[in-house]
Amino acid sequence: MEFQGGGRAQGRPIDPGQRLKRLSAKLRKDRIRCLERTLCHVLAWADAAAAPDCASETHRQIALTLEDDRQQKEREIQALERQLAAKLARTEYIVLLSIPGINVVSAAEYAAEMGPIARYANPKTITGRAGLYPSRAQSDQVDHADGPLTRCANRRLRYAILQIADCLITRNKYFGALRERWKAAGKDPRHSRVRVGSRFARISYHMLAERNVFRHPFARDRHYIVQKLLTFHRVHGTSMAQTLADAQAVIEQLPQHAYAAETVPLVQELEAIQERRRRGPQPIGEILPLLLARLRIAPVQSKGPGDHGPR
Fold first, then answer.
1. What are the structural domain ranges in the chain?
2. What is the C-alpha separation between 255 and 242, in angstroms, rounded?
3. Is the pLDDT of residue 306 over 60?
4. pLDDT of 106-132, one tens digit each?
5. Cα–Cα distance for residue pair 71/24, rounded to 1 Å
6. What confidence tens digit (pLDDT) does each residue in 260-286 have?
7. Crossing angle of helices 240-253/56-88, nearest 10°?
8. In terms of CB atoms within 10 Å, which end of the chain has fewer, N or C?
9. CB burial string 220-257: b at 16+ within 10 A, e below
10. Alpha carbons 217 and 227: distance in angstroms, whole number
């Protein structure tokens, strides 16, 4: 539907009230909220607007084509990220999602470049392979051990670690506080980025080698892996079948002592869904009881009058 200046459509004048109703109906159909007085201002501007440029239709077609291309690329990116989530869920690297600030994509990139953790003897082998250490220049009695990062390195692994370092600095309170402390001490931002990356490499090594979730003496809270994965799939519009399959694969990778903690947010979400079950279908409610059973926790039951047993 188009609203042209002057309130005309195909040469016939349109009643202002009718134009307002048509525009309101179009916005409601597209689920766009707008005040009526705002629509009146828009229509008043359209009446006073100058005539369109002679090439306006060409520009409009170009803009629509570019928008279609953007949406297509966005769908392709989301499909690729869904594939990354499916592969990550079936590896031990899924435990990295328990670290606040790390998402599915960054963890999958790190896992792809790292390979099996059994190939690394200690955390230093990770930073050594990634080249997260300064180069050293020696000549006669000259010895500079604080040069730029060494060139002999796996650049893709270094990139994955430094990308995670950026996420931790901006999304993790502990590492953000460290960055501020180093900044106050006059340290170069690149110094902070490399140090955070090195600390992440050390933390991730112990988590993966011990098959454990995130535990840090200075970080009280951790993220819940299954809930994080469900949120990721909900945002990406993943099918219920793939979401359930990935969540069950994640549970196979988790240590059993983490099961009880992982069920806490799932039980809370399931209770919230049951309380508003009469408002319409809630597909995620079909998945949560299965996940809770998989985690060896009985599904919560409805309470109060009208109780119909487990759902």
1. 8-48, 93-210, 225-294
2. 22
3. no
4. 999 999 999 999 999 999 999 999 998
5. 26
6. 888 888 888 877 777 766 555 556 666
7. 40
8. N
9. eebbbbbbbbbebbeebebeeebbbebbebbbebbeee
10. 23
